[in-house]
Amino acid sequence: MVGASYIRLALSTNNEDLQDEWKAAKRSNKIKLVSFLKEKTGYSVSPDAMFDIQVKRIHEYKRQLLNILGVVYRYKKMKEISAVERKAKFVPRVCIFGGKAFATYVQAKRIVKFITDVGAKINHDSDIGDLLKVVFVPDYNVSVAELLIPASELSQHISTAGMEASGTSNMKFAMNGCILIGTLDGANVEIREEVGEDNFFLFGAKAPEIVGLRQERAEGKFVPDARFEEVKEFVRSGVFGPYNYDALMGSLEGNEGYGRADYFLVGKDFPDYIECQEKVDDAYRDQKNTVETTDELKD
């Protein structure tokens, strides 16, 4: 039954009536989420923006830190150009995070603190307005997921390759008409095969490369991308408040030692990640782009 439903849906991809119904359903779900976020966080977000969501247990290998550093880089680039250029260059986004951290997991708590500090700064920046919002949803649970997942347009599944045993929330997002950005890891592998390479935004090191990349780091051979150094310096400048983020940024530096040396390869994948996010923007602008029905499905 699932296979038959998939084929019928694939054969209907150029049906404009179906596209209109799909968009209407998605917008309705986004409006519901807008109301929920206002009630729970006090932040007002636009339903016309792309809803970019990462909801997972807060853990360094799941790399919420990579996501929020990407947001910070985006914000910095926005601030460096004029309002007219900003509007032309950037697709409006609402970046939503959710998840819980173990009580004793200090680094995970630092990441949550960082996300909320970034949100507090960006969400009150009148120069940016609805072009970028950051929301951390409190007390993430199944009931919250029932609102977030149907409203999603981009979902992030960006664990360090080889460290996500499976991961199943990406399936829920995919079944709700959400595009994924992620590494070649866990269930991402099968989803990418099913939806097609053009409908999955892939970035990052592959699992067989990870051991070698960590060894390269231990030998002092890793050269960080200038954009990665730029975003860390920006965080340390104090723009996101008085909290000292040296410990968090320091975990991404050095070549060895507990809590250092960027074990989860955030710095290695950062340039590929932000370039992939630019491709996401380009695709979101092209709302009329439809998937060609394959010869196999036609048969």
From TrEMBL:
The protein's Enzyme Commission number: 2.4.1.1
Task: List the Gene Ontology MF annotations in alphabetical order.
Answer: glycogen phosphorylase activity; pyridoxal phosphate binding
Q: Which Pfam families match?
A: Phosphorylase
Q: Which cofactor is essential here?
A: pyridoxal 5'-phosphate
Which one GO biological process term can you cite for this protein? Answer: glycogen catabolic process
* Assigned keywords, A-Z: Allosteric enzyme, Carbohydrate metabolism, Glycosyltransferase, Pyridoxal phosphate, Transferase
User: Catalytic activity, per the record?
Assistant: [(1->4)-alpha-D-glucosyl](n) + phosphate = [(1->4)-alpha-D-glucosyl](n-1) + alpha-D-glucose 1-phosphate
Fetch the SUPFAM superfamilies from UniProt: UDP-Glycosyltransferase/glycogen phosphorylase
Q: Cellular component per GO?
A: cytoplasm
**Annotated function:** Allosteric enzyme that catalyzes the rate-limiting step in glycogen catabolism, the phosphorolytic cleavage of glycogen to produce glucose-1-phosphate, and plays a central role in maintaining cellular and organismal glucose homeostasis.
Task: Provide the family line.
Answer: Belongs to the glycogen phosphorylase family.
Protein name, please?
A: Alpha-1,4 glucan phosphorylase
Q: Cite the source lineage.
A: Eukaryota, Viridiplantae, Streptophyta, Embryophyta, Tracheophyta
